[in-house]
Write a structure and sequence with these properties.
Serine Threonine Protein Phosphatase 5, Tetratricopeptide repeat; 2 domains; globular
Length: 221
């Protein structure tokens, strides 16, 4: 079976496994369900294990445009074969926060391009591209154990630059990046707290929300 036929068979399986009840539940969490089957991550994980590290299948799954198929594509893709051009095409297709975060967590953070793409995408205006940038910053703070503290300081400047973006899925990602950087260690906690206090001085309700929510976690205030 060629990869496009395999992707079509998987999509048929997803449609069988999905439900309208699940779609409605997803929608309540702000997920775009226009092309969703209503399949949970608990169902997708064993499916991904059946097709691990299959680059051609990942491409074919993504091209179906189905919501869960795109999440599955991120889970089965081989990060060694996902080049910057492909990642650039995929980030342009993002239309829901959950696919965005799975794209960053399951795929992009495992590639050699994660650091450069985090700052490049954060600076872009498109809502889910910008979210991807800050989601990726949060993922790097969690997963790149070898990175020096200094590598995260430019990310904090991006937090300041874009904390005034009032779009819900962006401001939550900016906040997430700030919190995860601060939780990395005591030194970065201090820098993240200082960044949050800078945000409190801005004439922006969004920036102040980002700051206060981060400070509640980082300082317990």
């Amino acid at each position: 079976m060629d990869r496009h036929s395999a992707a079509a068979a998987i999509l048929d399986r997803l449609r069988t496994l999905g439900s309208e009840h699940n779609r409605q539940g997803m929608a309540r969490f702000g997920i775009n369900v226009e092309r969703a089957c209503g399949v949970s991550m608990a169902v997708l994980r064993p499916l991904a294990r059946e097709h691990r590290r299959d680059h051609a299948l990942a491409i074919a799954l993504w091209d179906t445009q189905a919501h869960e198929a795109r999440i599955l594509a991120c889970m089965v893709e081989d990060p060694r074969q996902a080049g910057p051009e492909q990642l650039g095409r995929w980030v342009e297709d993002l239309d829901s926060w959950d696919v965005t975060d799975q794209f960053c967590n399951k795929l992009v953070v495992k590639t050699p391009y994660a650091w450069e793409l985090a700052v490049a995408w954060a600076a872009r205006e498109a809502e889910f591209v910008r979210r991807a940038g800050f989601s990726l910053m949060a993922q790097l703070a969690v997963h790149d154990k070898a990175a020096p503290d200094a590598a995260f300081l430019p990310f904090l400047e991006f937090v300041v630059a874009y904390a005034t973006d009032g779009r819900n899925f962006v401001k939550k990602a900016v906040n997430w990046a700030l919190r995860q950087i601060g939780k990395r260690n005591a030194v970065l906690r201090g820098r993240a707290v200082a960044t949050a206090r800078r945000l409190l001085e801005l004439d922006s309700k969004t920036a102040r929300w980002v700051a206060r929510d981060a400070l509640r976690e980082l300082e317990g205030t």
